[in-house]
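Thread: fe (ii) ion complex, take 2
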Amino acid sequence: MITSVKRLRHVRLATPDLERQVAYYRDIIGLAEVGREDGRAFLATEAGQLALVLEHGAEPRLAALALDVAPDLALAALERSLEDVGLRAERASDTAPGSETAIRFEDNEGRVVELHVGCHFHDNRSPLPGIAPLKVGHVAFYTRDPVAASRFYADQLGFRVSDWIEDRFVFLRCSHEHHTVNFTRGSDARMHHFAFKLRDAAHMHRAADVLGGQKVPILWGPVRHGPGHNVAMYHRDPDGNAVELFYDLDCMTDEALGFWDPRPWHRDRPQRPKTWVGLPRDVWGLPPSPAFLDMHRLQLPTDLT
Ligand SMILES: [Fe+2]
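Output below.
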């Protein structure tokens, strides 16, 4: 194993229109712009943690998935671990303000992954306008091979499998939260969607009002999912990236217990990691809108969580 990942640190998105994306994530999502450097914009949450790096690119895509590892890990040891499993690593000292210790490599399907050591808080003015999520919570990807993807992230980065939907969608956790990365079968390895965590139902209500007030169409939800049981709502950013807002994600307080903290809306008691088969999976809420399905080119459209 390379190491055991502790949390999702931030997401790097490439965009052909940096200023439009900065305006959207600052004014509507409600992140604070905390730095600009070499054509990149750094955006942090109200709590002061980096959530998003926006950078110039020919087309919209996820440029990197940035993960936190144990703060006492040495970069040289991480490099050796990567070499041991045949992966080429490079030091990434310029990945984000406040982060001088990171290492970058490509996963089994060429996604760029950064492992960061140490944390840094930015000094934000609070409260922020817009939705102001608590943090960036998870990233979902397409994959040509969900089994291979789940094995790589489990065997090399310490993720645990939380749930499967049949044999085509896998949810993986690196902490007490139900999922931090997801993989659904598709024709390539691009991002499917990424998600910001909200506090509660009142925060979701506010988020819907913010999106409605800015004439941003809500494409799916709110809906309470089956796997993870998060209440989720989806729209897209100006580049067309699918953005989820969620709260109430299942938590496993103690791995030794082996089940999700009991909730009244669980179907199984206790609710353990499992393979979900059949419909309906969602506890309540309508299916995704045709506009939402269209943006995913009908690739396994109902398997978003
Ligand atoms: Fe999701």
